[in-house]
Amino acid sequence: MHIEDGILSPQAWGAWYGVTTLFIIPGIREIKNRVKENLAYKPFLAMTGVAVFVISAMHLPVPVTGSCSHPCGTPLAAIIVGPFATAVISAIVLFFQAIFLGHGGITTIGANDFSMGIVGGISGYLSWKILRGLRSPIWLAAGVAGFVGDLMTYLTSSFELALSLHGHVPLLKQWMIFFMGYGPTQFPLAIAEAVFTAAVLQVMVNRRPDLLPGVLRKESRKEEKSDAVRV
C-alpha cells in the first residue's frame, strides 16, 4: 500500500490529496466533538494510532508495483474510534512512516491514506455494522471487517497505480495486473488480519468494554429495543 514518491504524477497525487481532505476535515471535527464528550477518547485515539503504525509497518516489498504489502489495522481502528477519525490518524501514521521508516512518500500520503485509512477503514466498518445488524457474533463480524478492509485497501491502491500508469493498456486490465502483483502476499495477510481483528476486538469486549466508547452502548440499546418488541 505504501506507494513511493515518484510513482504517481503531480496531477495524480495532488488530486488524491484533494479527495482525502474531504474525509480529513469531518474526521477532525469528529475527534474534537468526541474529546469534548469524553476526555479519555484522546489518549485512546493516540493508542489506536500507535497500533496502526506498528501493524502497517510490517511490510513485504512488491517489486512489480513499486509498493509493498502489509496488514493495515485500519478496519479495527474504524470500529473502535470511528471511520473518519481513522482517516486522520492514518494520515499522521503515514507521515511518520515516510519520514522515519522510508515507507511510502510525502507526495503520496493523500493516495496512501485514501486506500488504507479511508477505503480500508470505511469498508471494514461497514462490514462490521452490516453483520452486527444481522446479529452476527462479534468475532465473526470483526474478522470479516478485517479481511474486507485489508483487500479493499489493496484494490484501491492498485486502482491508483493503474489510473496513473496504464498508458495504452486498458485501465481495468492494468488494475487487475497490479492487484495480482499484491495477491500472493496479500491474501494470506488479509486472512491474518481477519484473525487478528477478531481476536483483539473479542478480547476488548470481554475484558475492557470501557475502551470501546459508544460501540457497545449503541448495540446494547438496539438489543434492548428488540427484546422489548418481542416481549
TrEMBL record:
Part of the energy-coupling factor (ECF) transporter complex CbiMNOQ involved in cobalt import. InterPro entries: CbiM, CbiM/NikMN. This is Cobalt transport protein CbiM. Keywords: Cell membrane, Cobalamin biosynthesis, Cobalt, Cobalt transport, Ion transport, Membrane, Signal, Transmembrane, Transmembrane helix, Transport. Belongs to the CbiM family. NCBIfam families: PRK08319.1 (NF006184). GO terms for biological process: cobalamin biosynthetic process. Pfam families: CbiM. The keyword Glycoprotein does not apply. Forms an energy-coupling factor (ECF) transporter complex composed of an ATP-binding protein (A component, CbiO), a transmembrane protein (T component, CbiQ) and 2 possible substrate-capture proteins (S components, CbiM and CbiN) of unknown stoichimetry. The lineage of its organism: Bacteria, Bacillati, Bacillota, Clostridia, Eubacteriales. It is a multi-pass membrane protein. The chain crosses the membrane at residues 44-64, 76-100, 106-126, 138-155, 175-201. One of its GO terms (molecular function) is cobalt ion transmembrane transporter activity. Pathway: Cofactor biosynthesis; adenosylcobalamin biosynthesis. HAMAP family: CbiM (MF_01462). Gene3D superfamilies: 1.10.1760.20. It comes from the Bacteria. The keyword Transmembrane helix applies. One of its GO terms (cellular component) is ATP-binding cassette (ABC) transporter complex. It is found in: Cell membrane.
